[in-house]
Design goal:
With 114 residues, chain A is mostly beta strands. In chain A, 0% of the residues lie in helices and 51% in strands. Chain B is an all-beta fold and 116 residues long. The chains are: A mainly beta (114), B mainly beta (116).
Chain lengths: 114, 116
Amino acid sequence: AQSVTQLGSHVSVSEGALVLLRCNYSSSVPPYLFWYVQYPNQGLQLLLKYTSAATLVKGINGFEAEFKKSETSFHLTKPSAHMSDAAEYFCAASPPGTASKLTFGTGTRLQVML
Amino acid sequence: EAGVAQSPRYKIIEKRQSVAFWCNPISGHATLYWYQQILGQGPKLLIQFQNNGVVDDSQLPKDRFSAERLKGVDSTLKIQPAKLEDSAVYLCASSLRLAGHDNEQYFGPGTRLTVT
């Protein structure tokens, strides 16, 4: 069975600072990996995904993530935070070959300060 | 392109009452999912449909939860009777198909259920 761990339920950064949200997975085989963003009272929106191709994945809104098999990690980064990035971020995994059967982490709330 | 629609957006009921949620997926999407998102946790898959057939309902509490997707389009999720621990946001998602590296789930805005 696969599981996803997000370190840090809350992360605060200053506007313009680097954003780093951590995600580690546990799976017998490398899964497909996803980052979703959730704004208040809205559904989840896909930021980016890793599906066994390039290990550095670029997504929307300037976010990117790197798949590191040796570290079983898929951390999300953005060079410069913007106020509009304040939201809840979820890392998720699915068995390779499908984007179904998503297992989500517990989420990280990103706060961006002036 | 219209997104995944859900109704109602909010619902407050007393424990032991029943409640139903409705979901209309993106047109042409064969796969439909219902998730439960408890406050402070990530979404948990309750049930997954492919057209009008159930693919996975292993995490659905079948003694009180039921779901159907008649005609392979709209879906309803029902809770009867509700318990306090059912308070959560119920998210519906849809995807074009069941598998494939380019498959993507699109989420609706959710229904926030409060059981008092």
